[in-house]
Amino acid sequence: MEFCEGGSLADIIRSKKTTFNEEEVRTIVRQVIEGLVYIHSKNIVHRDIKASNLLYQKGVIKIADFGVSIFNEEKKTEGKYSRIGSPYWMSPEVLSDSIYNDKTDIWALGITAI
């Protein structure tokens, strides 16, 4: 794994003792969406998008910790029945043990942005 000297976004928030401004959030979200588009094109669902799994390195945000990710062989038509990830960032589909897909990562990114 590549070393990201900036640490995670959660680390940066803790050290700054404040949140990111609107422009910073916009840049972060854009970069994470680009990363999600890529991993979703490979039929991978991360399932744990949150600030502590987003790393900063020289102006670039990198998605980390694929430990609970799944390869969705069904080509994104349906996901897995499993409640896995961090509860505060889980989509309603995951929390209700319903079928879910890669859109659960978009939900988690939205919660992270908030």
What does this structure look like?
- This protein has 4 helices and 4 strands, in the order H-H-E-E-E-E-H-H.
- The protein has 114 residues and is α+β, with helices and mostly antiparallel strands.
- The chain has one domain: Transferase(Phosphotransferase) domain 1 (Transferase(Phosphotransferase), domain 1, Orthogonal Bundle).
- The strands form 2 sheets. Strands 1-4 form a two-stranded antiparallel ribbon. A two-stranded antiparallel sheet has the order 2-3.
- A hairpin with a 2-residue loop joins strand 2 and strand 3.
- Helix 2 packs antiparallel against helix 4.
Assembly state here? single chain
Tell me the radius of gyration. 14 Å
Give me the count of strands: 4
Characterize the largest beta sheet: strand count, sense, and whether it forms a barrel: 2 strands, antiparallel
What fraction strand?
5-15%
Give the N-to-C terminal Cα separation: 28 Å
The CATH architecture can be given as Orthogonal Bundle
Mean pLDDT: 86
Decide which structural class fits the backbone: alpha+beta
Find the CATH topology: Transferase(Phosphotransferase), domain 1
Under CATH at level 1, the class stands as: Mainly Alpha
* Morphology call: globular
Q: Compute the number of helices.
A: 4
Helix content: 25-40%
Query: Could you give me the name of the CATH homologous superfamily?
Result: Transferase(Phosphotransferase) domain 1
Strand and helix order: HHEEEEHH
Show unreliable segments: none
Please, how many domains?
1
Strand order of the largest sheet: 1-4
